[in-house]
TrEMBL record, chains A, B, C, D:
Catalytic activity of the protein: (6R)-10-formyltetrahydrofolate + H2O = (6S)-5,6,7,8-tetrahydrofolate + formate + H(+)
Broad EC category: hydrolase
Name of the protein in its database record: Formyltetrahydrofolate deformylase
Originating species: Sporosarcina ureae
Keywords of this entry: Hydrolase, One-carbon metabolism, Purine biosynthesis
Length: 302, 302, 302, 302
C-alpha cells in the first residue's frame, strides 16, 4: 500500500474542503454580550458559523468557554487582519483566545517503547485521514517500531533510555522536538517517566495513555493491580501530562467488562483495545482544537 | 411517603431557581447573521445565555437549528413584550421559533396497559424532581395501575379498549386530553394501536416506547422475534408517534447484551430495564424542549 | 396495586416451577475427577443438570469452583439423604460445599438512610418476581421510607443513628437480624459506618452499594471528588462488606459517560441510575447462589 | 517489524503451552448422565478439564450442548485412540461431537475488496498472537491490499470480480480454497455476493461482517439507510454466511452511539471501529471452537 500517495490524495481533498475553515477558541469571565460580540464580528467578515459550542460554569459570575468553527472565503488572505481586528473584542471582555486554521496541520511527535499497538492505531487512523496532522517524527527507546514507521516515510529516532541517563536522553528529545518543530507530543505507551523540566517545555501539549480508569490504579502495573483487586471493569485514560504522575487533566476514558476468568494476560489483551480507541479519540479531539484545559480538568467540545 | 409534600418542596425550589429561565428554539434556512441577530436581541434585554446549542445541516444553503436557554430577571413580566419584539428578527430570517418558560410546566398524560414498569419509572423520576412536568392524568385499559397512580394524587381513568370499539374509546380519550389540557402524551407500554385520526390531534406530541432497536422488529412481539433471530443485543426505542407504525422520528435508543442462554422471559426482563431508561430519557428531553423534529428525524440538543 | 396478591401469585408459579430445583456450590483444590464424581453422584439420584459453571484458577495445582443447578423430582423429600450422602465425595476431595434449594427463599433485610432510590429498585424488582427472596424487614435511621415499605406489608423499623450511639444502635440491629432470622443484609444507601463487631456477625452476607467505580474514590463524597478530578465516566460498585472500608470483594460494577457540563447534582442523578441497576444485579446473583468469595475477590457464575 | 520472527516466537511459546490442550464439542438430546459419562471418560485418560461450558435448551427433552477444553500429557500421541474410544459414548447418547487440538491450527483464508480496515485488524490481532490460526491466503478483487499482505509473507491473489463473471470467479476461488486446504473463510468486507453453489462448499465455515445491527438494514448501503432513518445507534454484525443474504446465524454484534450531527461519512468512520472489533471477536471465537450453530442461531461459549 502506498501510504504516501494515499495521504497526498487525502490532503488534497481536505485542502479543497477545509482551506477556508477557521476555528476560534475563547475563554473569559462570563458577561452578557460575549456571544453577540463574537458572532457580530464574524458576520462583519461574512464568515459563516459551521459549528459552535459553549459552556458556562455558572451564568452568575462564572467562566465562559466558546469554540466556533467558521467558513470564510479566502480565509488565508484575511486571517492576519481578522486576528488583529479581534484584539479589540478580546480586550473588552478580557478574553484568552486562539485562532487556528484547519489547513495549518499541527505537527505531531509520537513517543513509543516496546509495545507498538497504540502507535499502530494512530498510524492507521492517520492513513485513513481521520487524524488531521503531520506526524513528523517517532522516537523510541527500542528499535521494534522502526520498520513500520519508516515504511510510511516518517523519520524514526532510536534513543535508548533508562532512569540513570534520563537528563541526557531528554536533552536529545527536546532538541529533536525543536528541530521537527513539534506542536503535539503523544506518549503512545512510552514507558519512561518524564522529568518536570521536560514537561515544562510542553504545557498541555503532551498527551499520554494510562492503562487504567484513573484515578484508580495510578502508577505502575495497573492491570496487575486491577486483577488483584478483582474489579469487574478495566479501563484506560488519556490525559495531558503534568508533573504529578497520572494526575493531569483527563481528556477521555473508556472501559470494558471483565470477569473472574480473565487473568492478567487476558486483561492486557482486552485493555489494549481500550487503550487504542481512547488515545485515538483524545488525540483527534486535541488536533481539532476541541479540548480546553481549565485548572486540572478539560472541557471537550465534541 | 407523602409524594405531594415532596413535590411541593421540589416545585418551590425549582421555582426559585428556574423562575427566570426561558428557552428559545429556532429553525430556519441557514444564512449569515442568525446567531449574531439572536444573541444581540437577548443582550438588549439583558438576558444571560445559560446554554446554547446549534446545528447546521450544511453551511452552504442548508437548514439551521438553535436552542438557547437564557436567564432574565423578572422574565415572566417581560416575556410578552420580548416575544412580540422577536417577531421582527423571525420575519427577517423566515424563522420557525418557539419560546418556552421553565416555570410553565408542560401537562403530561400517560397511557398504560397491563405492564406498569414504564409508568413506574416515569412516576419515580417525577417524584425525584427529574421530570419537570405536571402529570395530569393516567389513562389505562386495565385497572392494575390505579392504586399506585391515585396514591400520588393523580387522576386515573379506566377506559376498556379493543379494536372493535377503537373509535369510541379514542373519542373518550381525546375528550379527556382536552379536559386536562394535555401538552404531551406518553405511551408507557400502551398496547392499543392508535388511529390516524387520533394521532393527527397531537403532532410530535405523542411519545412511544417500542421494545426493539428500530428499525429491527417493527410491529408485534419483538422479543419473541429477537429470540427467533438469535440476536446478541436487544434494545428499545422511544419515538414520536406518526401514522406509520413504529416509523416515527426516533428520540432515543439503547441496548443490552444477551446470549444464547436468555430465553424469551429473560429477554423481556432485560428489556424492561432498557425500556424504562430509554423512555425516561426521551420524555425528559422533550419536556426540556431539547428535541426538534425535522422530516422523520430528530435533532436532540442534549 | 395489591402487591401481596401479586407476590402470592408469583410465589405460586415459582413453587410449581422451582420446587424441585437444587443448587450445589463446590470449592476445593483442583484435582482430576471432581466433575466426574459430582456428575455421577447426581446421576445416581436421577437428578438432571440444568445449569453448570466451573472455574479453575490453574489446571496444575490451583483451585476449582463449581456451581450446578439441578432438577430432581420430589427434591424436598430426598434432600437430607442426598446431602448426607454427598459427604463422602466432599471428604475425598476436601471440598467446601453448600446445597441450597430454590424454594427455600433467603430472608433479606434492607438498611436504608434518607435516599430511597436503591430501596425502591429492590422492592420493584421483588414485586416483579425478579428477586427470589423474602424481604423480611427494612431498617432505617430516617422515617422517610416507612410509607412505601409498609404499603407492601413489610415491617419497617426506625432506629435513629449517629456515631456517638453506634454501639447501642448496632445492638438493636443485631437483635432484629436475629428476630427476623436474616440471611442477607443489603445496605441500600445506608450512610452509617458499621463496626467490625457488627460486620463479624455477617461474613459475606452484607452487600453494599458504593457510589463510585472502586477502587477510585474510596470513602465519602465520591461524586464530589469525581467532579473535582474531572473524570469522563462515573460508576458504582456493589461489594460485600468487610472491615476495610470499601475494600470488600466486588460483585458488580458499571459506569455511565459524563462530561464537563455535568455538575455535582447532575452526576448524582446519573449515578442513581447506575447504583440502582448495579445493586439489583449483585443482590440477584447473591440470592441465586451465583457468587463465590475467594480471598478478596468474587467468582460470579452469571 | 519482522512479522515472521515474531510469529515464530509466538508459535513456539504457544506450542509449549498448548501442545497438550484438546477440545471436545458435543451436541445431543438432553438425557441424564451425559456430563457424568464424558467427565468419567476424560478422567480415565487422566485428562484434566481446563474449561467447561454447557447449555440445555430445556432440561425436559430439549437439546444439550457441551464444550470442554482439557489438558492431557502427550495428547498428540493418544488422540487417535481417545477419539476412537469416545465413539462408544457418542453412540450411546446419539451425540454429534468433534475433537480438536489447539496445536492443529485452522487454516484461514481472507476475502477483501477495496476497504482494508477489517483485514488490517485481523492481521494485527494475528501478529499479536490473539488469533490462533494460519492465515494461508488473502484473495481480493482489488490490488490495494497486496502490499500489506505480502509484507507478512502471506500469499495474495488478485481475482477481478463482478456479477457477470461470478461463476468463473468462484471457480477460481474454490480451486484456491482447495489448494490452500482452507478451514475458515473470512469475508473482511468482501463486497461481492456469493452464489448458493459457492456457499454450499463451506457450511458454517464462512464468516461475514455486515455493517448494521441485523436484522435492521439487511442488504446494501446500511449506513446510508441508518442515516435516513435517524437511528441513535449504529452497529455491526458478524454471522455465518448462508444462502439467505444477511440472514445467517449471528455470532456477534455491537453498537456505538451516534447523533444528528453525524453525517454518512462520520457514520462510516464510527462504523469501521465497530466492524473491526465485532469481526475480530467472531473469528476468534470460531477459531477456538466456541461457536455451535443450531438451526439459524449460535451458541457461543465465551
Amino acid at each position: 500500500m502506498s501510504a504516501q500517495s494515499k495521504i497526498a490524495t487525502h490532503l488534497e481533498e481536505q485542502s479543497t474542503a477545509q482551506r477556508n475553515i477557521g476555528r476560534l477558541l475563547v475563554k473569559c469571565s462570563d458577561k452578557p454580550g460575549i456571544v453577540s460580540a463574537v458572532s457580530t464580528f464574524l458576520l462583519q467578515y461574512e464568515a459563516n458559523i459551521v459549528e459552535s459550542s459553549q459552556y458556562s460554569t455558572d451564568p452568575e459570575g462564572g467562566m465562559f468557554y466558546l469554540r466556533i468553527a467558521f467558513h470564510l472565503d479566502n480565509l488565508l488572505d484575511k486571517k492576519e487582519e481578522m486576528e488583529e481586528d479581534f484584539n479589540n473584542i478580546a480586550e473588552q471582555y478580557e478574553m484568552d483566545y486562539h485562532f487556528s486554521y484547519a489547513v495549518e496541520l499541527k505537527r505531531t511527535a509520537i513517543f513509543v517503547s516496546k509495545e507498538p499497538y497504540c502507535l499502530m492505531e494512530l498510524l492507521w487512523e492517520w492513513q485513513n485521514g481521520d487524524l488531521n496532522t503531520d506526524i513528523v517524527v517517532v522516537i523510541s527507546n527500542h528499535e521494534d517500531a522502526r520498520g513500520m514507521v519508516e515504511a510510511l516515510g516518517i523519520p524514526f529516532h532510536y534513543i535508548p533510555a533508562n532512569k540513570d541517563i534520563r537528563q541526557e536522553v531528554e536533552k536529545q528529545q527536546v532538541k529533536l522536538m525543536e528541530e521537527y518543530d513539534v506542536d503535539v507530543l503523544v506518549l503512545a505507551r512510552y514507558m519512561q517517566i518524564l522529568t518536570p523540566e521536560f514537561v515544562s517545555h510542553f504545557p498541555n501539549q503532551i498527551i499520554n495513555i494510562h492503562h487504567s480508569f484513573l484515578p484508580a490504579f495510578i502508577g505502575a502495573r495497573p492491570y496487575e493491580r486491577a486483577f488483584g483487586r478483582g474489579v469487574k471493569l478495566i479501563g484506560a485514560t488519556s490525559h495531558y501530562v503534568t508533573n504529578d504522575l497520572d494526575e493531569g487533566p483527563i481528556i477521555e476514558q473508556d472501559i470494558e467488562r471483565v470477569d473472574h476468568r480473565d487473568d492478567i494476560v487476558q486483561l492486557k489483551k482486552i485493555g489494549r483495545t481500550i487503550e487504542r480507541r481512547v488515545l485515538a479519540r483524545a488525540v483527534k479531539w486535541h488536533l481539532e482544537d476541541r479540548v480546553i484545559v481549565e485548572n486540572n480538568k478539560t472541557i471537550v467540545f465534541q
